[in-house]
Amino acid sequence: MTTYKQIFIEESRKKGIDPEHRRKINHSLLQSDIAFQKGIPQFSHLQSAKKAANHIKRTAIENLDTYLLRFEKHFTQNGGKVIWAATAQEALDAVDRICKEVNARLVVKSKSMVTEEIHLNPFLSSKGIEVVETDLGEYIQQLAGEPPYHLVAPSMHKSKEEVADLFHEKLGASKGLAPEALTQFARKILREKYVQADIGITGVNFLLADIGGVALTENEGNGRLSTSFPKVHIAVTGIEKILPSVRDLGLFWPLLATHGSGQQITVYNSIFTGPRKTGEKDGPEKMYVILLDNGRTRLLADPKARESLYCIRCGACLNVCPVFRNIGGHTYNSTYGGPIGSVITPHLKGMQQYAHLSQASSLCGACTEVCPVGIPIHELLLYNRQLSAKNATRLEKLGWRIWANACSNRSLMNMNGGKIKNKVIRILFSGAWGANRDLPKFASQSFNQLWRKQRQ
Amino acid sequence: MKVEIFIPCFVDQLFPQTAFNMVHILECAGCEVEYNVAQTCCGQPAYNAGFQDECGIVARKFIAGFSGENYVVVPGGSCTGFVRNYYKQLFKGSDLEEQVITKPSLFYEFSSFLTDILGVEDTGAALEGVAVYHDACGALRECGVKAAPRTLLNHVRGLKVVETEDAERCCGFGGTFAVKYEPISVSMGEQKVLNAIAAGADYIISTDLSCLMHLDGYIQKHNLPIKTMHIADVLIS
Q1: Would an 8 Å CB–CB cutoff place A409 in contact with chain B?
Q2: Quick one: which of A128, A256, B120, B202 has the fewest CB in 10 Å?
Q3: Nearest residue on chain A to B173, judged by CA atoms?
Q4: DSSP H/E element including B213
Q5: What is the Cα gyration radius of chain A?
Q6: What span, in angstroms and rounded, lies between the C-alpha atoms of A35 and A370?
Q7: Distances (CA, A) of B1 to A347, B6, B7, B31, B71
Q8: Judgement on whether residues B104 and B132 belong to the same structural domain of the protein
């Protein structure tokens, strides 16, 4: 049986030697970094901002039950309805019920990773409902029939020429349109969809416990249009997106903007506190918030892994990750790619099948360094390795025991000369070290042996 | 000043000359160098693989091999960072809890020891050519070493150091990662080497031989016109 790990390694190999993929990703990531460096100076002391954000998220997650109930209470008072979904299926069923109530034929969606997690689009399609992604990057991915490549920049792996070809092939646009013309083309189609849609489905950037609000951050205005025209607004979110107070946005909005896209503040920031009230001119007639667990309480139950729930999905750890840069977003074969994905996916989807994601890291620590909420990402990868070591093969366990014995005894390390060691290492490692690197050569005598001879 | 040294296991076995070069530079700077011939490994390989208990066995022997009275200088930031930052977690609640508060803070990566403790910025070295400096992850992120090697290299006569966009990006070694995830590791190393060549460099210089060993493996296999050098080997040139 081919395991997820084998597929992962094979895909890594393909991406690693694909020069076109490398060129596009290096270009995109360089642009991200230039933008990020420009955004940073808005913080007079970034480390303090991160520390404060870490403290707020710690408070929120350590008291998750309190804050979620507080959110529910206030949102319900505002006229909204909260739906608790323990699993992906429960969330899908809830969406299905709402669709049936209003006899929905068309749903517009603004960008949402959690709806990718529960595979909402194929589910709605199977019910005969048309779903249209309205974030341009997500729209491109939907046309291409691919999942998003990156948490924040779903189509960063596509060149403008590839997008022009896609629009020509799938939408009948003229050949070779420039990015501006492509945007106008998509805009024209999407504007029609907003007006016709029965339901708008969005993700959530922050749940605000004190006012019962949902904060949504976007750059294209598609989030606002998706929630203004349709009669029903459904916001789907993981339970970890909670913040204690609307006042916390003063810190979290700029942190998210800078780390997500290098902006000082994202172009459109909306707070939805419920459906239209009597006398109000706009807003949906009904608003639902689906609070999804889907494995998150497993992370919550583990005091160490819990810190990964602080994540605000800014994608900065992907941008700085050298592994992501070389293998790309799809190779992870999980909704959440990059370093934070490699931390949470084994917990959400099974340590047995996904432990390799935590192993596939050089532990360089760039993710931890950049994280705006202070998640020790590479230490959590290490923690996952400790958890999965319990299920290691007997051979591997034995290997480490032999290693520990060998390293406890200096005379063992001084045994044999360089020639023999070179032979042994060739037998053991020439395959795994690969066809692309020469093996290092042992010295004829170790430093230790030479020191004893020369200095003692 | 009396200093103790730790020679990481793979440096001991593969690169003894670099270790001796470090010793010579320390001695020239007036240090009396002590080396405990019983030392082996800091335990990091097992820890990074998730095998804490096996790491603990080796680390326990390791920490006992240092007096706790002198600085410990290491030709590399990886082991230094591991001892400094992870021993506290590893021995939390054990009989070694007190020892691992005082001893690890004495560990120094070689180049930062020269500049920060000994105040040496110029070793009198000369090397003709262009170099890129590679920030080894352990040195940069675990030990905060960034300025020290650059300061030292800028004093090397004839050497021009150019900064590259990817200086702080991991080379792709990562211990067992280099073997278990060979395609990713090689791809990362390849980009590092090709970027250095594109920058016109004759040398890739770093504080850590683990990175350089991996990069050199790629360079040798592909007969590329660039050479890796540990900073101690440069500073003695």
Answers
A1: yes
A2: A128
A3: A362
A4: helix B209-221
A5: 25
A6: 14
A7: 51, 16, 19, 5, 9
A8: no
Please state whether beta strands A206-208 and A213-218 pair in parallel, antiparallel, or not at all (unpaired): antiparallel
Q: Do B182 and A433 touch (CB under 8 A)?
A: yes
- Spatial distance between the Cα atoms of B178 and A35, rounded to a whole number of angstroms: 32
What confidence tens digit (pLDDT) does each residue in A374-425 have? 999 999 999 999 999 998 889 889 999 999 998 888 887 777 677 777 777 7
Any residues with CB less than 8 A from the CB of A224 and at least 6 apart, and which? A218, A268, A270
Reported in sequence order, the residue ranges of chain B that DSSP labels E, i.e. its strands, are: 2-5, 32-34, 71-74, 107-109, 126-134, 157-162, 203-206, 227-230
Residue identified by tokens 């999905």 is A313
Chains A, B: CB contacts within 8 A come to 186
pLDDT in tens, B77-98: 999 999 999 999 999 999 998 8
Domain residues for the domain of B73 are: 2-116
Q: Which contiguous run of DSSP H or E holds residue A108? A: strand A106-109
Q: Which residue in the set B13, B38, B49 is minimally distant from A400, CB to CB?
A: B49
SS3 of A280, please?
A: coil
Closest CA in chain B for residue A325: B188
CA–CA distance, A43 with A255 (Å, rounded to integer): 9
Per-residue tokens: A395: 């051979």
Q: Are strands A213-218 and A268-272 parallel, antiparallel or unpaired?
A: antiparallel
Please name which of B141, B93, B145, B10 lies closest in space to residue A379, comparing C-alpha atoms: B141
Tokens, residue A205: 């950037």
| pLDDT tops 70 at residue A1 | no
pLDDT attached to residue A414: 75
CA R_g for chain B: 17
Helix H or strand E encompassing A268 = strand A268-272
Distance (Å, rounded) from C-alpha A198 to C-alpha A169?
Answer: 28
Rounded to a whole number of angstroms, the distance from the CA of A380 to the nearest CA of chain B is 11
The CA-atom distances, in angstroms, between A307 and each of A57, B50, B87 are: 9, 19, 21
- Tell me the domain boundaries of chain A: 1-42+317-391, 43-294, 401-455
Distances (CA, A) of A392 to A354, A356, B13: 13, 12, 28
Superfamily of structural domain A43-294:
NagB/RpiA/CoA transferase-like (3.40.50.10420)
